């Protein structure tokens, strides 16, 4: 479903075309929903719970194929490699940290080496042979981040990846993930409730509301790559959006 | 720390020795050929091993049990998985499974001995039909309770079927497979002996019937103890290590 190719001289990576999706009560979550994801951009989707943000990610990832409409990929993107940082860790408890990362590799020696490298990069050098049950919440999250980057993806989907972590740890992992996104030049889509997080990650933020989900505001963001979650730069943009669009943000419970 | 970890095995050994001691004391006081002493039974085991057919009978029984167990595990696992995955099949066959669970083993073997004669096929078919519903129920429940989130990994990263089966599905089913295997083995040993007693000309069950006819309690206990010892060896040196290996990640 996702591999319909299209020619686009612009830098569009994925194009979501008139998607319709109903929930278990046969109510429309997505109705005629359109979205363009540009190559190498980080797009943040912000909105209240239950409007269909995660559903959209599941459709983009191929997890959910029960929908109408089309997901198109640019013909010029030669090899689509997708990764996903799930809200739950989704680590297999019977595999060690290294095995969880290697699971998605093709047993190719280069990728095996990258598994060691990436686990080292996220600070788990000494925990590669530890099972997830014996890792802390933060460590499990690091493994899932390592897994997301080991296959050198060109598109990364993130579904509220830092939602249940303590603030200092969440900040540390946000910085680490941004570094990896920049290093790997990955196109990314982040679903989040946290506007500051969206500002920190994204080049473009779309605010969604209502059911079926619709885009009510779109903002381009330009900040220093290394800006911290609590930095003045992010705080300033955050306040400006709140002042400029109070009603939208109130509706989004931000 | 070392004393604590060895306590369970010390108590198990003490418990076993207590049974032997009680048996020894009772046989000393009763002093009757229908209540042989442990020494006489051990002597009988030696005799049947060297002079009798204990080895041949044990092999016959274990071959029947092994074949029945393998067929029941393979078929039961496949059917259980399919019932969990295909709801219409589950609706249709659910009552069959319930009947299978509740039909007395003895009824099945009598029917098969009448229909197919006193043959190996009849015995194995009856044992398999007794065991299969238990495996089906276990695997069906195991399949239904598999974590759906883990399958997202397979879809997102487009893992091939071999990896999905070996890394995602089977590890989740191991506990259910092991429960089926262990409960199944204990059930199969027992019913194979009864079925041999009813309609075969060799095997441990057949010999127990012969001993019963001659009121040879010592021979009967010799066969029973030898058979139980082998089952304990299989349980401790095959089943438990396999289970530990399959679920080692849980206990760390």
Order of helices and strands of chain A: EEEEHEEHHHEHEHEEHH
At the first level of CATH, the class of chain A is Alpha Beta
Roughly how much helix do the residues of chain B carry, as a percent range? Answer: over 70%
Contiguous low-pLDDT stretches of chain B (5 residues minimum) are none
Query: What is the chain-wise order of helices and strands of chain B?
Result: HHHHHHHHHHH
| Count of alpha/pi helices of chain B | 11
Radius of gyration of chain B, taken over Cα atoms and rounded to an integer in Å: 22 Å
Helix/strand structural class of chain A: alpha/beta
How would you state the average pLDDT of chain A, rounded?
84
How would you classify the helix and strand content of chain B by structural class?
mainly alpha
User: What is CATH's topology name of chain A?
Assistant: Rossmann fold
Quick one: biggest sheet of chain A? 6 strands, mixed
How far is the first residue's CA from the last residue's CA of chain A? 34 Å
* Alpha carbon gap, first and last residue of chain B: 18 Å
Strand content of chain A: 25-35%
CATH architectural arrangement of chain A: 3-Layer(aba) Sandwich
